[in-house]
Amino acid sequence: MIDYEDALRLTLENVTTCGPVQVPTAAARGLVLAEDVVARIARPPFNKAAMDGYAVRSEDVGELPAELEVIGEVFAGQPPELTLGPGQAAVITTGAPVPEGADMVVMVEDTERTDGGKVRVLEPSRMNICAAGEDVRAGDTVLRAGQGLTPLRIGAAAAAGYGELSAYRRPTGALLCTGNEVVEPGQAVPEGKIFSSNGPMLSSLMAPVCRDLTYLGIVGDEEEELAAGLRKGLESDVLVISGGVSMGQYDLVPAALQRVGVKRIFHKVAIKPGKPVFFGIAGRTLVFGMPGNPQSCFVIFHMLVAPAMAAMSGATDLPPRFEEGVAAEGFKNNPARMNVMPCTVERRDGVSALRRCQYHGAADIVGASAADAYLVVARGIEQVREGERLRFFRI
């Protein structure tokens, strides 16, 4: 049995980043850039009006009110075809190029039109001009490889002229549930069987971080059926298996994985829940065998599977993202393993107070469903006191 930190290190050491692909910029949200984004043009590419009004020469409006001759109009999307001389102005719209000779845009609200095609400037004004290249110059690096693509960064890439981006693809995933005792939700439940909560729960966790997710269903505790399901799962970048990894008579997964060519990296981690977790590799495929208890699956996904899949997607800021809080109450703790417990987070005087959920162990997914975070108690701690600092991650 190894410590969690060693398990995470060994997992990440066996990650291979999924190759970069070209994706439409508008569809790249959540992906990680594989190449720098360099501005193809300056932004703005010309001096442009920041608002609707009149393009003027600042020296003509030094004393107010000032009356100027309107000699034309300049609209956004059209090159200006006029030049301002002394005592002249031009109607201009937001985003339009500022005509030659002008160095100020007066807001329309600070003017009034007069007879004879003139405008009277009534109030002092700022320049109201966005200078060419003030946001970015042509050739400047706008985004760097390794950055995650948020909507704002997608907008920045589009502004730099990119219709497509080179980004790391998300891994493909496969999910296989095992056990004679579980049936799919919605089916009839024969005596002695229960609904599978792990399939829907793990599917909901994996789908947002997978390029494609294949649900292989539930296989019984039978070697040939299990081996066939595992071979199918190994066609994906990541295979997650629920159940069958402990030491019971029908825990057949570790032997079946060896049979289909999976190399074991570790089996059993000092974490509660989730101790029997198996991790192995087959070529580039990462294989995670999780205990069947729902909370074990949930915790192991966040602590090992999620960081591995993020790294496969090119990310460097990996989950779980720990924050610091304090225990809302004291409690005894089993020091044999790192303990990861469902909790709620309350803000008290600017501090996150962590209160454990009421639940009946790793199988109680209903009790854990009240959680909005999981707190972490390090291995070796027997007693947690009220107000003691603890790490936690939000879910």
Which properties best describe this structure?
alpha+beta; Molybdenum Cofactor Biosythetic Enzyme, Chain A; Molybdopterin biosynthesis moeA protein, domain 3; 4 domains; six-stranded mixed beta sheet
Write the topology of this structure.
Elements: H1 4-13, E1 20-24, E2 32-33, E3 37-38, E4 48-49, E5 53-56, E6 66-74, E7 88-92, E8 104-107, E9 111-114, E10 118-121, E11 129-130, E12 141-143, H2 151-159, E13 164-168, E14 173-178, E15 182-183, E16 194-195, H3 198-206, E17 213-219, H4 223-233, E18 238-242, H5 253-259, E19 263-267, E20 271-272, E21 278-282, E22 285-290, H6 294-312, E23 323-327, E24 331-332, E25 338-348, E26 351-356, H7 365-368, E27 373-377, E28 383-384, E29 389-394
Parallel strand pairs: 6-7, 14-17, 14-18, 15-16, 18-22, 20-25, 23-26
Antiparallel strand pairs: 1-13, 2-13, 3-12, 4-11, 5-7, 5-8, 6-10, 9-10, 19-21, 21-22, 23-29, 24-28, 25-26, 25-27, 27-29
Quick structural summary:
17% of the residues lie in helices and 32% in strands. With 395 residues, it is an alpha+beta fold. It folds into 4 domains: 4-16 and 170-312, Molybdenum Cofactor Biosythetic Enzyme, Chain A (3-Layer(aba) Sandwich); 31-41 and 136-168, no CATH class; 48-130, Molybdopterin biosynthesis moeA protein, domain 3; 323-394, MoeA, C-terminal, domain IV (Beta-clip, Beta Barrel), CATH 2.40.340.
